[in-house]
Structures are given as C-alpha cells and as structure tokens.
Amino acid sequence: IVISPGELEARALSTETIARAAEVLRVHGCVLLEAGLIHAQVCSEAQRQAQTMLTQLLDKAAQNFPDKDVIRDRLYSRELCSRTECARRYDIRLEPRAASPHWRELLKEIRHWTQPVLEASGLVGSGGGRVQAAGLVISVPGGVPQGFHTDGSSPGCVNCFCPLVNVTNACGPTEVLSGSHTWERAHAAAVCDQLSDDFASAYESYHIARATMPAGSLFLFDFRAVHRGSAHPSEEAGGSVLPRPILYTCTVEPGTTPWDFFDHPSLFANAV
To answer: Residue 255: left (phi > 0), alpha (psi -120 to 50), or beta?
Structure first.
C-alpha cells in the first residue's frame, strides 16, 4: 500500500488507508506500507549505529566463544543471536527503555504509524496492543537463506520491520506465505518441514509476498505467518556489497507473551 504525499505531510494515515491495510493484514497475514514513513536521514543514522553495534557485539562474542567462528556458527546470548548456521544474519536486542534517544525516537515513529492499522485489524486487541520487544536483524553478504518457519503459533502478536536501507532482491528480503497465519499449527509445521527439503516448491505451491521495499517503509506480519529471510548473496554472486539492517518491533495483545529467543546469558555477564 503506497502512502500518499498528503498523508506523509499530515503525518496521519487516511481512514481508507487504515481500513485497507488492516484488511490486508487480517486476510494475508502481512502488509507493506510503502514510502518514506521514516525520514531518510533518520534511517541513515540508524544504519550507521546498527553497524557499529554489530561490530562491537561480534568482537565481544569472539572473546566469549573462542571456539566458535562468529561469522559462520550459531550464536546465542542476551544481546546477539545468529540462529542459522552460515546465514550471516544477526538478531540484536534493543531495550527500548535503555536505548539511546535516537533509537527511542525511531521506535516512537514506528508506533505512531502502525498503531492505527493494528487497532483496526483487531489482531492485538483494543488500542493497537503494546510494544513487547524491539531489535535489529542485520543480514550481511554471503548469507544463506533461512528455513521457512513461524515466530509462534498463538494469535495476538504482530511484527513490524522497518528497513534502514533499500531492500532489493540482492540483499535477502523477507518472504511470507500469504494466508499462512490462519493455518492450524500442525499444518504450518508440516509445510515448513516440506519446504526445508524443497525451497523451490514454495514458489509453485503458495503465493509468496516478497518484501522488497524502500528504506523507511513498514512491513507488518503476523507471528503465525510462515516466513523466512531469503539468501543475501555476496557481491561476486550478484548480491549486495552492503549489510541489510532492519529495525523491528513486536506488538502484542495485553496478556500475550511471545517466545524470547534472547533468553540466554549476557555477553557481558562477567564484566567488571
């Protein structure tokens, strides 16, 4: 859904846009609000800070796990996770209350634009739910695709991705199987297992939303939707030369607690 210049200038989505976006999210399990909802300069500064954070955390992980190759191996900690071997895709936890003013302002902007859509969708309860968690997903060139998966099986949780750079086919966009958020848990698990052996069949058997989008757009998808991060080829293989940082938020219905894959010891647990 392309946001009009008038909506951007007014800093408010029209009633028609809210209703349409909410309906697409309910029916398909995902919706893209495309345009510079988040200003380019804000995204550029966040991109710079994200790269600095990743470098520092990888250095710390290398110190804590000397037996691991932090670029290739799986990593789990409270601050940094890499959940797929060789994926070169890193999740970084952001604590909204402890985040820098820049990150807090950016999270506030995301909430400003998404709350009306979430409230109208009814997926996270009245009032558009509450932001439970925030973080960064940074994909770097040379990464393999994730397996198709869901982030949970219970209703009441919606992710929002805000790319800090333009996301093209060359830098590993997220792919979502349209309507899969309505599947029974066992069926979703069976499809994920099937696609783990045959990625190509996904494009033949299902309608896939491939989230290519300009920086500052907002991509919402239901936790239950079957999705994956696609491959981020190296420059030599025709991919992007630059990392692809995405800021995300997880908004939940009050009383709902999503799975926390950062539930591991801190990299700084033994710091003096």
So the answer is: left
Q: Partners of 143 in the beta sheet? A: 232
| Per-position b or e across 150-174, b if 16+ CB within 10 A of its CB | bbbeeebbbbbbbbbbbbeebbbbb
The Cα–Cα gap between 208 and 259 comes to: 24
d(CA 29, CA 26): 6
Output the CA–CA distances (angstroms, integers) from residue 105 to 46, 97, 165, 179, in the order listed.
11, 11, 18, 32
Over residues 208-238, the pLDDT tens digits come to 999 999 999 999 999 999 999 988 876 665 5
Contacts of 117 (CB under 8 A, 6+ apart): 13, 18, 21, 22, 25, 31, 33, 128, 220
Dist CA 99 CA 114 (whole Å): 20
Check if the beta carbon of residue 123 is closer than 8 Å to that of residue 155. Answer: yes
HEC sequence for 211-233: CCECCCCEEEEECCCCEEECCEC
Q: Which two tokens stand for residue 148?
A: 């198709």
Which residue spans within the chain are E strands per DSSP?
30-33, 75-76, 80-82, 89-94, 130-139, 157-163, 174-177, 208-210, 218-222, 227-229, 244-252
Model pLDDT for residues 182-201, shown as the tens digit of each residue: 999 999 999 999 888 777 77
In angstroms, rounded to a whole number, what is the distance separating the alpha carbons of residues 219 and 229?
13
Residue whose pair of structure tokens reads 């069949």 in the numeric block: 201
Beta strands across the sheet bearing 80-82: 30-33, 218-222, 157-163, 244-252, 130-139, 89-94, 80-82, 75-76
Which pTM was predicted? 0.93
